[in-house]
Every structure is written in structure tokens, then in C-alpha cells.
Amino acid sequence: xxxxxxxxxxxxxxxxxxxxxxxxxxxxxxxxxxxxxxxxxxxxxxxxxxxxxxxxxxxxxxxxxxxxxxxxxxxxxxxxxxxxxxxxxxxxxxxxxxxxxxxxxxxxxxxxxxxxxxxxxxxxxxxxxxxxxxxxxxxxxxxxxxxxxxxxxxxxxxxxxxxxxxxxxxxxxxxxxxxxxxxxxxxxxxxxxxxxxxxxxxxxxxxxxxxxxxxxxxxxxxxxxxxxxxxxxxxxxxxxxxxxxxxxxxxxxxxxxxxxxxxxxxxxxxxxxxxxxxxxxxxxxxxxxxxxxxxxxxxxxxxxxxxxxxxxxxxxxxxxxxxxxxxxxxxxxxxxxxxxxxxxxxxxxxxxxxxxxxxxxxxxxxxxxxxxxxxxxxxxxxxxxxxxxxxxxxxxxxxxxxxxxxxxxxxxxxxxxxxxxxxxxxxxxxxxxxxxxxxxxxxxxxxxxxxxxxxxxxxxxxxxxxxxxxxxxxxxxxxxxxxxxxxxxxxxxxxxxxxxxxxxxxxxxxxxxxxxxxxxxxxxxxxxxxxxxxxxxxxxxxxxxxxxxxxxxxxxxxxxxxxxxxxxxxxxxxxxxxxxxxxxxxxxxxxxxxxxxxxxxxxxxxxxxxxxxxxxxxxxxxxxxxxxxxxxxxxxxxxxx
Length: 641
Fold this sequence. Notes:
The protein is of the alpha/beta class. Among the domains are: 4-117, Immunoglobulin-like (Sandwich); 561-639, Golgi alpha-mannosidase II (Immunoglobulin-like), CATH 2.60.40. 23% of the residues lie in helices and 23% in strands. The strands form five sheets. The protein has an eight-stranded parallel β-barrel. The chain has a six-stranded antiparallel sheet with strand order 20-21-22-25-23-24. α7 (309-325) packs parallel to α8, α9 (398-405) packs across α10 and α12 (472-486) runs parallel beside α15. It is globular, with a radius of gyration of 26 Å. The N and C termini lie far apart (76 Å). Residues 145-543 form the Glycosyl hydrolase family 13 catalytic domain.
């Protein structure tokens, strides 16, 4: 077999690109009532044979069929038989060697993704699926990050035993804490909180968990089959159609309950190099340096070569498939900085063409773990290159996150809310979603304002690490201040599930493969910290009434006015007028005080309604002339027309 460097030289020739770039839309298995076809792209294979199985895991093939060579490096076989539910794989001969593998373009598979499966479109649709659609867009994007298994695994959530940790848990309405019939969990809890988007951590087929082991756990950032739902979240991973139907039922239930759904996608690397893609076309889909060293900018052992034509198209078609087949409303790209700018803009454009400009959310992590061997003139979709991205391709804003709570990797380094001085200007820049002089950011639409996600310490654990010996009362005040700051920044709002009830992982900052007992969502904690949850609810409710902060246009930063700063405190006013979104308040006054001293600030003429003060959501109280900002707290005032 050729070396990696030899393969690389072949793929980079103009002859290979012109002779073998296939633009057809029929790759994979297409199953209809009257025909089933299989198309594999493997340009340098010498022979390909298709094997059919009745079981998705074991047993001998009941049929084997040589495939015929087609155009542009494809191999084909078809039958007039409807093979819905039949499993299959390929045997390929190349350079005197033979390999067996599943379909890189598979849309269904058996347990643990070993064998692919033919599936008839529509046969996996739950009742009413054709009528399913996303709920109307809310006043603001409030994105709530959830792991399917974490969501319902703990008994405190009140989910039926058979549904705990499964897709089907999302179809169970009106669950309550320990089945007490009083305290909502699950869907009702999220509705009360004010969530508008649910971001699902990886739900495609991934490799780090045995799908038959109900106790296994992983975050899932290790793809195997990009176009197939993960089987460990289904009630029956051994039958490929079950995971598809139950996934759709989950989406249907989320939509019915008023939530749009974002899918966390990981196109930058795969579980290992022993993949269907790499066996079909060795080293085409992966980056390598000139000396043959495998590129590892993901820190996961491999980097996907998104800039190569067939690889970029593979990713694009995968995104479009999830949007069409599964009604997904947005995509969060893991380590987006390892993908190329052209591909990200192409994805944005194609989604816009099909669904309307900006209707599907697209954003990602604008960084990489290390240097990557991206080829040619391609440019990485890094934070430093955000100006080259479409205005509706967004990024997580680490500047906002770190300014508010402190360094993401240095556990004991605090931020503005937990005691570090000199960050006042960064906080004010965060308020404007970094639409400041010298910035490449086009509008707040490109910014995800957040302070916690699945990675790194939870917010509560970060506060514990930076505030050793602090009382619970002080910790809660700081948590409330942190929430008030980012929820009054322009941009899209994002929070890790459970942040609002002081979620903890006992100080573990990378719990990706630690036991579910540590990672699970502890619904009991939501009511132990009911005051904090209520504060988050109030902030989200107010946010939706503040068009001056929800504004995503390029001119939005101009609404932020009258900025002031002093040691450990800042403030500003907001033009809150919006003809298309009537608000109770035409102007807002917002101040953050991270110091241990009371601050008094003058107000412009008129009566100001106190909306938030001293860690509480207020109702029908007013002030004039001067506002008092208590230590470690935020104040939000509104002026009525």
C-alpha cells in the first residue's frame, strides 16, 4: 500500500480533481418501493463487492454482489427489490490488499455502527412527522445546551425507568421532581425558564460507547457515522430503524413544546483513523503534512480535510440531510476553526437558499487545538478570520466569557465578577458584542454571549475555585451578577443546562468520559437553588422585552450609550425603542458593581422603573434622580414612554 505522502501527491494533482470529483447526489444507499441502489465513491479501488446481511451485528452474508465501475470514481450496484431493513457492507481491493467496511454515506446502521443499513424514506417517520415544523421564532435566541443522556438519567427527574437517558424521555410531558406532581422537570421546566433553542450535544453515531451498555457514558465528540443517530440513546440499538424513529419523535416533541433544535456537529475529526471514509479512499479525507505526519490540530489524532472538494461536499450534504430529514433548526460546529472559511460560507448559503436567510442558526468554536495542515489557499474559520465569514455565521465569544468569570484554563484566575480589577473596558466591549473600532465582527448576530458550556469548569465550580472560603450567600451574589452581565450583553444568549441552579461536577473540568453519576442533570438541585433559578427566569423574561439588546443588526452597538466606568463597576444606557417590537420601556439603564462598596449614580430626568436590583427581580417599584447599586450586584432600570 502507498505511503500517506504518495496518496497526498495523487490527490493534489489536477488530473485527479478533474477526473474524480463526483457531483452526483446519489452516493450511499437509495431505497424505494421499486428499486434499491448502492453507490460508493472509491476512485482508486480495483474491485468492490457488496455484501448483504439480515442482522446488523453478526451472522454470515446471505448475498454478495460485485459492483460495477461508474463515472468519476464511483462503484454501483442496484436491484429491483426493496431492501428496506437489510444490512450491508463492502469489500474493497486496492494495491494488493483487501479491506471490509461500512458505507461512509450510510443513513442507517446496526448496533455500534459496524454494518450499514438500507432504509426506505418515510418508513421511520412517526405519526404527524410530515406536519412537524419549528415553532415561530421567539424575541431572542436563548440557547440551552443539553446532553441527551444527562437530561433524563437521574431518578429525580421523574422520567419513566425505560426512558431514562433515551431520546424517548423528551416525549414524556409534565414530568415532575421525584414524581411529586408539583415541581416541573424536563420540558415544563425549560418552558418556565424561557429557553427558545435546545442545543443537543452530539447525537450522530459515535464510537466511544458500547451502544448495548446502558451505563456507558461519553459526551460523543468522536464521530463514526455522520448521518446516523447515535444508538445508545435509543431503546433498541440493535434494530437500525428504531434510533431513527425515536430521534424524530424527540425532535417532534421539542418542536411541539415550543423549542427549536440545534445539533452539535463534529466535522473536524473522527473517532479514529480506522474509518469507512479512510478505507474507501485512503488518506483523502484527512490532512497530513508534507513529511507524511498526520495532522492533529484537533488534539484527537486526526483532522478532516474539509478543503478537498469531495470532503467539503460530504460535510455540506450531511448538514443539509440533517436539516431536511430530521428538521434540525441550527448547527453548532465543534472546533470550527479547523474547517475552512469557504465551506462555512457555502453551508450558510445553501441553508439560506432552502430555508430563508438566517433561518437556520449556524455558529461554532472559532479556534483549534493546534496547527493543522490545511492545503492550498484555504483559510481557517478562526476567530481572527471572522470578518471573512458570512454575517450569519457566529462564534462563541471567549473574550466575554473570560472577562466576566476569569481565565477558562487557569481555574484560580478570576474575572470581573469574582474580584479581578482592570476589566471594566472589556466588560463594556462585551455589552456591544465586541462591535468596536478595529473589530472584524459584523454584527451581534455573529456573537454567542455565554459564561459556561460543557467544556471546562461549570460556572459554580469556577466560582468555588476562585473564591476559596466565600460564604454560600456571597457565591450566589456573584453567580447572579455574572448572569446579569452576560444576559444584558448584545449577541445570542447561551447557557449550559443547570448553570441556573448552580450545577457542579465536583471541580472536574473535562468530564467527557467520566461516569454518568457525575455528569447527570440533578433535578433536585433545581429546587434546592430555586431562588437562583427564579432570578435566571426573570432575566430571560426581561431580555425578551429588550429589543435594544436583542438587536442583531450591524447598527445595534449604537444603541449602547452614556458608558461610564470606575474601579470594578461599569454602567450604560440602552436605546430600547423598536417600532416592530413594542416594549414597556423606551430606555434602559444598566450597571454592574463587582466591588464591595455601595455605588450611587445620577439618573436622567424622569421616573425609572426598577426591574432588577440587589439580586432580585423587582415589580412596580420606581426611582428618580439617583440609583443605588449594592455591592456585588447589577441594577436594571427601564424608562416608560
